[in-house]
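Hey, I was hoping to borrow your eyes for a little while. There's a protein on my desk that I can't quite get my head around. The fold is given in discrete form, as structure tokens running alongside the sequence. I'd be grateful if you could look everything over and explain what you see. Here's the protein in full, and shout if anything looks odd to you:
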Amino acid sequence: MSETYSFGPFQLYTQSRILERAGAAIAMGSRAFDMLVAMVQRPGEVLSHRELMALAWPELVVEESNVRVQMAKLRRVLGCGQNGTQYIASVSGRGYCFVAPLTNLPVMRPDDSGCDDTNPDTHRCGLWRAAPAPLSQAIGRCEHLGELSRALRCARVVTVVGAGGAGKTTLAVLLCHAMREFAGATCFVDFSAVAHGPQQGAQLGETLARAFGLEIDTHTGDALTGQVLKTIAARRMLLVLDNCEHVIDDVAHFVEQLVLCAPEVRIVATSREALRVNGERIYAIPPLGLPPLAGPLTAQQAMAFPSVQLFMDRAMEGGYDAALADRHAAVVAGICRRLDGNPLAIELVASRVALYGIDGVAELLGNQLMLSWRGRRDAPARHGTVEATLDWSCHLLPASDRRVLHRLSTFTDEFTIDAAVAAAVDEGDTRGTMAVTQSIADLIEKSLIAVRAIDGKTTLRLLDTTRTYAATRLQPGL
């Protein structure tokens, strides 16, 4: 059965998780989206509150009131009741039912950028892969989006750099939808499925070719990359290269060629380290805003900060049905600070508040159990758990860097570079100092060690999640 549906002015693409109205993507929460898909796939059937809870909150125990809240949001999005339109019926004492005329489309949605192509030697822009729909609530990113937009107007290549889960892809997607000057001339390429190894060059070429609608046939990776360069050489467009860290050398080579042959193309890459190509500007994605350490904190004051807003929003999505209380304001602020304002880490931790409570989550923050807490089922595998996110980074490291990171996990607070070297070098091995120093520099570049410089003093720090992972998963012999 097709995964694409049409009803009223709406098109629903279940695989890409997009709801469109008259061709424009509509932002909505993941729980409401899951419930809509469940009802659309079983039109005319009454789905009980229990069934909807199991689909939208898998493995969690939540109150039925959460279904009603999400259903109210969904009805507002669809415009139920406006001009007599009815899409979802409420069946008293039983549940909800999708009642509108529905068409199950025979083909998937083409990724259409809306660009008209008159050059017979190239493929139409309408076959290019457009950016995904933006999240319904990209909390705290408006200022950062403005900074990134300005950076791209000043440089042809901008690399968004940050730790796993920092929100690099989210910001890149927001940029695609915000830069009106590239409307209809944007291509979004996700390299996360390209396997790290000897065949990655060929796979990278195939991924690029598919993103531009080129036929692969028996072409080699280099030939496909050459076809992509030829296709876009004379165009004015925005090209987003997402998840580049594991194929960084091949991506850097492609970008260098693109800069030379395509003067009107602007490139945004997302990676846990810089491409290090000529003309590149680095945009280190900032953490979500955090409450200050000084002074007492009320709930109202804490909720002014994006990290706390995100925490409470995801806690409520996970079934926590209470507003932030003054007595918990400092606890939540402390959790967000310990997670360095990392959005993915905050989301994964907050999703367990309904089970453990705010105090319980704070107590478990440095526990191994936290590493395996699961997020949304529709999230990429590398973002399914904290452990998976760090696996993605650490499996790319040489053994020497993993060993150094494990030894640095003994630091529970900030530390100096000299202290880091002393902790990581084998006793009596004076010749190993240079190698350890280089490993520390590499870990910093790969966003696994955070750096802070205040008043001319530079200190290093591991996120709580990274420290727990390094201490328990990077032990020698594991």
